[in-house]
Each structure stands twice: as structure tokens, then as C-alpha cells.
Amino acid sequence: MTPLSPADQLFLWLEKRQQPMHVAGLMLFSFPEGAGPKYVTELAESLRAYQHPEGRYGQKLTRKLGQYYWEEDDHFDLEHHFRHEALPKPGRIRELLAHVSAEHSNLMDRERPLWEFHLIEGVRGRRFAVYSKVHHSMMDGIAAMKTCVRSLSYDPTEMHRPPIWAIPPKKRSSNPINPQELVSGFGELFGDASKQLGTLPKVAGEITKLFRGARKDPAHVSIFQAPNCLLNERITGSRRFAAQSYPMERIHRIAKAFKGTMNDVVLAMCGSALRDYLIMQHALPDKPLVAMVPVSIRNDDSDSGNQIAMILVNLGTHIADPALRMETIQASVNESKERYKSMTPEETLNYTALTMAPAGFNMLTGLISNWQPFNVIISNVPGPKKTMYWNGAKLEGMYPVSIPLDRIALNITLLSYENQLEFGLTACRRTLPSMQRLLDFIENGIHELEVAADIHGK
Questions:
Q1: Contact 36, 132 (CB under 8 A)
Q2: How many CB atoms are located within 10 Å of the residue 199 CB?
Q3: Strand, helix or coil at 238?
């Protein structure tokens, strides 16, 4: 048996009916040239031949003395995990997104390996889709994306490539955990005692500077600054998923004009969209919204577990001028980057754990619901830079489907693929009415930044 790290266990502790803790991806494929009408049915039959899962895909949870472990599932049943489905006619993207929204609302069975793979036919235009989800305790979003990419190929002629559950996992370059050395679960998260103690002076100093700076410098964002708003109401288990692609070249031009990064522009686009959405709902707070932005600190090529830190970013939603909003966001991001530059990986993990612990406590207990450490989660996951194929079928787009949290009703995750940025917006269906309008507002955000930079239409 293999123990879960505290970071991985956290996603099990956080899970409840209204808060499923799985991440997923939606991949849209076009039929290979010459494929017949039974292509997807034949593909499904070929996938059912892979009855022996690899790595975490063949393991289920067990619990002893309060500690979760992975153990082999001796009664693995592929039919439970692999689903062959068809969209109702007319098979538009609207029907596909509605289907994904419904599937993403469902909790997974903890008595079985925590993953599902849905092969979906009936998409208009000789296309089919794959919706694949895994529990966040099994892997983080970047690891999930890497696993999906390993199941694909850059060669359109390559056939008989195994599905994700049949691909042997990559091993971490670091030494495995010895369960006998785990005095407590937090030992693995924070490293050994000497490293833990060694980080305390630096971490304490940075937290002190953070609180002091928040009173003097608007670029500083502390865990006490986020206002309560519509995004931070109680959520239900029902999900709504929306997706859209935007040309990366447009984002590059804006970043160059503002002497910033693509991430700066993405945050400005999201800030603009959230401002417009909340104005439409007559719910824009006077104070700026704060985004929690995960940052990967993975220093190996593994594809399991969670290795992430967090930064808090002022989205400038109180500012009408898009150029000034961009300046505010850039200053906030740069301030966080400078803080992490001065830290070791151990200090980064401890700093993140201490600053985000109150948010985790609130999500677990709801005892301090009037205090909002951040309003929205915005993640950017790097994806393939060239066209990919799955047994001859061209990958047209891949969209991340992520996790809203109680009182964090919206998660915006984007993934780069070829020359596109693929946005996936996942929200509580009841808390955020007309959430799909955010896609229009994101487009408006791009347009207003182009106008502000005087590059529209160039």
C-alpha cells in the first residue's frame, strides 16, 4: 500500500455532495479520413480490450488509523469506468456541454479506482468527444493533462495507441516515501524536521511583510482583502460547463503592447469579464475581486500527486479603464513573483500552506463564512504546441473541466493547444445564472485591451 500525501488527502477531506473534488478534460476529435459510420462503435470495442489498468488507474482507496492509502483493486471492472455514450440530436456543442455538465456533477465511487472515461459519439460534423475525469487526490490538473497527452501522438498514421488507463505511469525522480518514516501525514508535505524548522524564519518574515505591505501598497494582496460577492455564495452539486477557444496570437500582441506576459493578459481578460458579468447581475462590489492562481512547482516529470503553490492577484474589477486594470494586475502578479523568487521549494510549500490554511479551514467547516480569502480560481495549464492525434483522429480542441468550491462558485481554467487558448469555465449552476455569458464578456475583454493598446484589427 502507498500512503497519500497530505496535499492529496486534502481533496478527500474537502469532498462533499455539493463539492465533488474531481478534475476532468473534454477532448474534441474529428473522424480520420475514410472512417465509416460505425467508426466510434469500433473504437469503443478496441478500447474494451485494455482490461488491465496501470498505476493509480488500477488502485482504490483504503483507510487505516485515519490515513488514506492506495491499494490494488482486485475486482477491477472496466465497464464501470469506461462509458460509450451518444449525444441526443442534433448533436451540437450545446448538447455536448450540457452532457459534460451533468456528468461533472456526479460524485465518484470511493470503493473503486477514482476515474471515468466517457467516449461520446453523435457530435455534429463527423466528430466525437472524450470526457475523462479523475479525482484530484489521484493527480493535479497538470499531471492529468500530461497523462492525456501521453495517450496521443503527433503522428496521424500511428494506430493502436492504448487509452490513458493502460499507459504505464512515469516515476518521480525523487525517492519514494517510506511509510515507516511517516511520524504524521504532514511530514511528507513539509519535508523532514530540519528543513521544516529552517523555513520558519523566512516564511514568518514574508507573511509579516505581506500584511504590512497590504496596508501601504495596492500591489500587495493579503488573505483579508477579497470582498464578498455573488461568486461566493453557497453552492450545490449541480454544475454548468462552458468552453471556448481564443487565438493565442491576439493574446501575444496585447502582452507585447503592455510589456507583460500572456498570463497578465489572461488575468486582465478574466477581470474584465467578471466585472461585466457582475454589473449585469447588479452585484459588482466596490472593492476589487481577488483571484487565487495555482502555480506549478513540479520539478520532475511525474504524472501523479499534487505539486502546486498559490498566489493571490488583484483583478482590478473596480477599475473601468482596461489599461489601468492591466497595470494593477501586472503590479500584483510581479509582487507575488518576487516573493517566491526569494524562497526555496520547501519555503514555498510552507508559505502556501500557512496562507491558505484559513481558506481550507473555512471550506471544511464553514465557521468563518463571512471572511473571503479570494473570490475566484484562475488556472493556466500549458498544453501541446503542435497538432495531436488519437489513432488517426485529429484532436480539434481540449478543454479543462475543473472544480468550483463552496463559496468559490466559479473556476476558470485554460489550456494552451497549438495556436489557441482553450478556456473551460466550471460553475455552480444555481449560484451563477447565465454563466455562459462570461464567454462573451471574455471576448469583450480581449477587444477592449486591443483598443486600449491601439492594435485592434492589426
A1: no
A2: 21
A3: coil
Asked if omega into 163 is within 30° of 0 (cis), the reply is no
Alpha carbon distance 444, 59 (integer Å): 45
Beta carbons of 298 and 172 less than 8 angstroms apart = no
- pLDDT for 217: 54
Residue 232 gets which letter from DSSP?
G
DSSP string, 319-354: ---HHHHHHHHHHHHHHHHHHHHTS-HHHHHHHHHH
pLDDT tens for 80-136 read: 999 999 999 999 999 999 999 999 999 999 999 999 999 999 999 999 999 999 999
Structure-block grid coordinates of residue 127: 466528430
In angstroms, the CA 242 to CA 404 distance is 13
Q: How far apart are CA 252 and CA 259, in angstroms?
A: 10
378 φ, ψ (degrees, to nearest 5) = -130, 115
- The number of domains in the chain is 2
166 and 243 both lie in a single domain: no
Helix (H) or strand (E) holding 362, with range, is helix 345-365
Best CA proximity match to 274, nearest among 198, 346, 356, 376 = 376
Bridge partners (DSSP) listed for residue 314: 290
Instruction: Identify whether 75 is a catalytic site residue.
Output: no
- Burial class of residue 399 (count of CB atoms within 10 Å of its CB; 0-12, 13-18, 19+): buried
Distance CA 224, CA 208 (A): 13
Statement to judge: residues 214 and 312 lie in one domain: yes
- Could you tell me if 426 and 381 lie in one domain? yes
Burial (CB count <10 Å: 0-12, 13-18, 19+), residue 226: buried
pLDDT digits 0-9 by tens, 47-59: 999 999 999 999 9
Alpha carbons 86 and 62: distance in angstroms, whole number: 34
How big is the chain, counted in residues?
458
State the pLDDT confidence band at 225, using cuts at 50, 70 and 90. confident
| Cα 242 to Cα 373: distance, rounded to the nearest angstrom | 25
Q: Looking at the domain assignment, is residue 185 inside a domain?
A: no
What 3-state DSSP class applies to 430?
coil
- Full domain range(s) for residue 288: 194-386+402-452
Other CB atoms within 10 Å distance of the CB of residue 71: 12
Angle made by CA atoms 317, 277, 216, in degrees to the nearest 5: 15
Q: Of the candidates 23, 49, 454, 13, which has an alpha carbon nearest to the alpha carbon of residue 254?
A: 454
DSSP designation for 153: B
**Active-site hit among 81, 104, 135, 136:** 136
Lowest-confidence pick of 187-201, 205-219, 383-397:
187-201
Q: Based on the fold, state whether residues 9 and 76 are members of the same structural domain.
A: yes
Do the beta carbons of residue 135 and residue 114 sit within 8 Å? yes
- Cα torsion 392, 397, 398, 399 to 10°: value is -160
